Amino acid sequence: MTTLNIPAVASWLQSWQQSVIDMLLTHETKVAPHLEAWSYPHLGGGNSQALLQGNIIEKGGVNFSHIHGESLPDSATPSRKHLVGHPFEALGVSLVIHPENPFLPTTHANLRLFVSHAPQSDEHPNWWFGGGYDLTPYYGFTDDCQLWHQKAKDACDLTDPSFHGRFKKECDDYFVLPHRKEQRGIGGLFFDDINEYDFDTCFNFIKHVGDSLTQAYNTILSRRKDHPWEDKHKAFQQMRRGRYVEFNLLYDRGTLFGLKTKGRTESILMSLPPSVAWPGESVMHIGPEEKQLTDYYLIPRDWLANPLLEEE
Amino acid sequence: MTTLNIPAVASWLQSWQQSVIDMLLTHETKVAPHLEAWSYPHLGGGNSQALLQGNIIEKGGVNFSHIHGESLPDSATPSRKHLVGHPFEALGVSLVIHPENPFLPTTHANLRLFVSHAPQSDEHPNWWFGGGYDLTPYYGFTDDCQLWHQKAKDACDLTDPSFHGRFKKECDDYFVLPHRKEQRGIGGLFFDDINEYDFDTCFNFIKHVGDSLTQAYNTILSRRKDHPWEDKHKAFQQMRRGRYVEFNLLYDRGTLFGLKTKGRTESILMSLPPSVAWPGESVMHIGPEEKQLTDYYLIPRDWLANPLLEEE
After folding, report:
1. I want to staple B298 with a disulfide (CB 3.0 to 4.6 A). Which of A140, B178, B183, B255 is the partner?
2. Do residues B111 and B92 make contact, with C-beta atoms less than 8 angstroms apart?
3. pLDDT tens digits, residue range A111-156?
4. B267 Cα distance to chain centroid
5. CA-CA-CA-CA torsion for A244, A250, A251, A255, nearest 10 degrees?
């Protein structure tokens, strides 16, 4: 059995943060990342890398944080009451990328390690990995959806062939707006509490997931960044971004937990899109191209049931 | 003692809805209201009047609804458990006006009557009025703030001189964004459960409040609608509208209750502004004029402590 190695995770997370930024900068040519480091006395800190008002990335944030808490809040782990009130440690990277071009999808990812410093029992590990990623297109492309889920499956299969089915379903179940009866996007992976293998195996799974996100999103950026768009496409993107805001502020557990526990507001809300519209039902233009999003792409499905299509 | 007269309230609410629309149309010259009537089988219905993409009103909604429920949900009245599960009736008008010009404030108002059809006790009335109004400026004007609160006080004083102090404080206490340590706006009136006088007296109070909103907002529109503005003012307004969205989706009880109980999503979310921005901290322009909003206008205070200033 391998042992818990927090510094190795912190180091890898920061190298992954940098590799995502480097990947984005192979596309983005107008702006440089704005780096902001922050810390809370005795509680740790983090750093945010923001890409704002770029030619490809309208708003993007890739944030690393490493926090030590003296007392786990009651609301943090409903299923593990014995950890409440004990010291804990949490480290992770969160990213949200909102591209300018409405034919490019928004992506969100999170990879994290949680460690409890409660007196330890021998039965259960005192650490859990968690995270996942998902894609929110405005105008869908079947081959992008297939690529996205294929990369996710490949990453999972390296560790456990049962992972992909479970974590895709958890993702579909999580990113739902009940008041709209809509999914937020086309899904991906979502997992909590990963410690069913030894530490190194779970850590390797996290690395595979991280690398697959960078590769998949890189390919999609390459494919679509030069897709021509007009004002009507931008208007539709901004209206759909409203749904993104609704999900994050009404339902997203990380956002609500972060704000409730007085986390760093700017980091938590970096996920909100740069420009958004709720124009009112009767003036929204929803043509056949726009209708495809909700009628086809946002319906959860097995995107890998057919072999990968060639680029159309 | 006067008796409960629901039809009279329904009739007055609809006439007030129309008088607000008529007032707005003395300023708005580009667009006509879009009227949409809706109903749920056996549960009642309502009608929405929306002003969208106008020259003065960028987005406004004035909505009437009259709903009959067969069984009051548990979450509706935490303080009156004996009414849960019994039939009820609710009627009201809600409005939110988002002007185009950043020098015009957003306003929100709600007036409502709630009636329980639970077996009645003689001790307590089975009806309650509720509501209030508040103002959210982007660029503040002292005389507008004074006018706003003076009209609110005058309306309250006609019924009970203790009302204004109580209901202004409730408003200041309610419209708070704890994660921003900011008020949503400059406040106004907020009251729940008004039945401490007989029905007609309480109903008259509601009428006075409604009329005072129309008058005060009309005066402010007249004063500021021709104020010149530039792109930088619009950008600040859109960024501040983000705070409005944050409040409504994170904290507003009516919004969260409505969505949770499967109310009509389009009516509930008509409050969300037409165009909003979360541009990212490091690219926001906050000059001295913009800083005044949070440093002065959004600090709760007694705006009537000094006599009304003349128009500057």
Report:
1. B183
2. yes
3. 999 999 988 766 778 999 999 999 999 999 999 999 999 999 999 9
4. 14
5. 80
CATH 3.40.50.300 is the classification of domain B6-297: no
Closest CA to B267 of B56, B26, B44, B11: B44
- Phi, psi for B199 (deg, rounded to 5): -60, -50
Mean pLDDT along residues B303-311:
67
Q: Which of A281, A286, A294 to mutate to test the interface with B (most CBs of B within 10 A)?
A: A281
Q: Is the pLDDT of residue A91 over 70?
A: yes
In sign, the C-alpha dihedral spanning B271, B272, B273, B274 is: negative
Q: Does B304 touch chain A (CB under 8 A)?
A: no
Cα dihedral A286, A290, A291, A295 sign: negative
Would you give the DSSP letter of residue A269? G
B311 pLDDT band (50/70/90 cuts)?
A: very low
Q: Is A53 on the interface with B (CB under 8 A)?
A: yes
Of A250, A282, A283, nearest to B259 by CB-CB distance is: A250
Q: Residue A269 and residue B278: Cβ atoms within 8 Å?
A: yes
Contacts of A278 in chain B (CB under 8 A): 59, 269, 272-274, 276
pTM above 0.90, yes or no: yes
Cβ atoms < 10 Å from Cβ of A29: 9
Helix axes A142-157 and A199-224, enclosed angle (nearest 10) = 160
Distance (Å, whole) CA B114 – CA B93 = 12
Tell which of A35, A57, A106, A179 to mutate to test the B interface (max B CBs under 10 Å): A179
What percent of chain A stands above pLDDT 90? 81
* A256 and chain B in contact, CB less than 8 A: yes
C-alpha B202 chain-centroid distance: 18
SS3 (DSSP) at A93: strand
Give how far Cα B121 sits from Cα of B70, B116, B201, Å: 19, 11, 21
Of B50, B262, B272, the CB nearest to A282: B50
Least confident range from A73-87, B63-77, B132-146, B201-215: namely A73-87
What pLDDT digit, counting tens, does each position of A27-36 carry?
Answer: 999 999 999 9
